[in-house]
Amino acid sequence: MSAKASTERQITGGDLRSRVRRITAGCVGLAAVASAALTINLAASADDNKASADRPAADAGVPAPAVTAPSTAQAPAITAPTTVAPVAPAPSIRSSTLAVPQQAPAASNGRSHTQSGGS
Amino acid sequence: MSTTHGARALSSSAVRVDFEVWSTTATLIVTDPTALDIAQAALGDELAAIDATCSRFRADSEISRVLAIPGHPVILSPLLNSAVSQAIRVADATGGLVDPTVAAAVIALGYDRDIGAVVVKSMDGDHQWPTAQHQPAPGVHRLEHDPATGELVVPSGVGIDLGATAKALAADRAVARISGLIDGGVLVSLGGDIAVAGQAPPGGWRIAVADDHRTGSPVHQLVSITSGGIATSSTVTRRWRTSSGWLHHIVDPRTGTNPEPCWRTVSVAAGSCLDANAASTAAIVLGPAAPDWLFQRRLPALLVDLDGNTTAINGWPTTDSLVSA
User: Fold this and answer.
1) pLDDT (tens digit, 9 = 90+) per residue, B286-300?
2) Which chain B residues are Cβ-neighbours of A77 within 8 angstroms?
3) Which of B43, B45, B223 to mutate to test the interface with A (most CBs of A within 10 A)?
């Protein structure tokens, strides 16, 4: 009994340290994989957002308002109004910078094509 | 909606047409005269679509109908989804200096109808102006918008005014659309917010920079561009007189009122007309800090202060090239 207990202690002691190391390594590995997957999902979501936000001029042909009245039963977009206006996190849509021109304007002369000014 | 003034040739190739729209002047120029009809039709379609979608002065516009049911999720049309997405992006990129939720403040200042009607109203000495309650903009973070699905929830008490971005966005969209239909180059100017696309004419598109986009106003400078856009914001246009004094259309979202006078006109060149317009408007709002702000963003700009002194930034031609002050 005591020998067995001694054996168990030896096994438990050695294994425990080894198991702890393996478990720790496993957790770190899982966390890394989960983090990578989350990053990929977020990147894909951002790309989707970009594609939507930067829809080309083809959108312009016919405006298709899809506003639906709150009472429209079949409208899946409408839900009950919230009693407390939720505060959404600051949206992150596409680039948060303003696009610089390919080149700065050049000084010119002669007759102008048109005029830029306040309206 | 618009009155065409007739086409006229600018050179052996380019042809131009001007017409009234949104209480301002629209200009269309194409380098291939045979493409004018196609370009004009496409521009007309684009302006009509933007108007029907984004105008806060039309009760039947899509944005008006969205704002009529606050607190409810609504699926936007692709065009309004794009316009709202871009307005939010601009607010983000300018740190809230150009913010579509400034609507209530703009209306509180008296800009509650088309600018032409506001000016007429201001000439009525008997008009009772409400006491302006300066309202800082709630901020775009109050909007629940998913650009991927087009779903938008506008909380109760929050308005949206796309006026600061829709005109420039329309110019960008119009030139993109037209250049996909015709050969050669195209320029669209909507009240002095200018977008170009396609092959520019030799020497580039020559643009006179002035306080007012209307022909005949004093010109500060003549510059040329070959791509992107130029926009000018000014405090000397779109003005109206109230019982408490003169006001103009540029409102600081942080305070809900006109910014402290500093620049009378700021012109900016950018990769798009929309971004140029966002930067020029932000510069007027920022006041003395505008040159540094523009410099850090590498946006070429010309700033004209109240006395007519000019500051050129990031490669914008210097004052040596001024043709008049």
Assistant:
1) 999 999 999 999 999
2) 73-75, 151
3) B223
Q: Which residue has the higher pLDDT, B261 or B237?
A: B261
Partner residue opposite B145 with nearest CB, options A64, A91, A105: A91
- Spell out which residues of chain B touch residue A54, defining contact as CB-CB under 8 Å: 82
Model confidence at B101: pLDDT above 90: yes
Q: pTM of the entire structure? A: 0.73
| Residues with Cβ within 8 Å of residue B262, at least 6 apart in sequence | B284, B287, B288, B290, B305, B306
Angle subtended at Cα A20 by Cα A16 and Cα A22, rounded to the nearest 5 degrees: 115
Q: Which residues of B294-314 are buried (b: 16+ CB within 10 A; e: fewer)?
A: beebebbbbbbeeeeebbbbb
Contact B72 A45 (CB under 8 A): no
Domain count, chain A: 1
ipTM of predicted complex: 0.85
Per-residue pLDDT band at A109 (split at 50, 70, 90): confident
Interchain proximity B191–A119, CB inside 8 Å: yes
Which among B16, B50, B316 has CB closest to A104?
B316
Tens of pLDDT, residue by residue over B207-250, are: 999 877 666 677 788 999 999 999 999 887 666 677 677 676 78
Token pair for B112: 């509650």
Please tell me the predicted confidence (pLDDT) of residue A61.
33
Query: With contact defined as beta carbons under 8 Å apart, do B288 and B268 qualify?
Result: no
CA distance B130 to chain A (A): 25
Q: Look at residue A108 and tell me if it is in a domain.
A: no
- Does A85 map to a domain? no
Residues of A in contact with B156 (CB under 8 A): 81, 85
CATH class as words, domain B3-321: alpha beta
Q: Distance (Å) from the C-alpha of residue A31 to the closest C-alpha of chain B?
A: 28
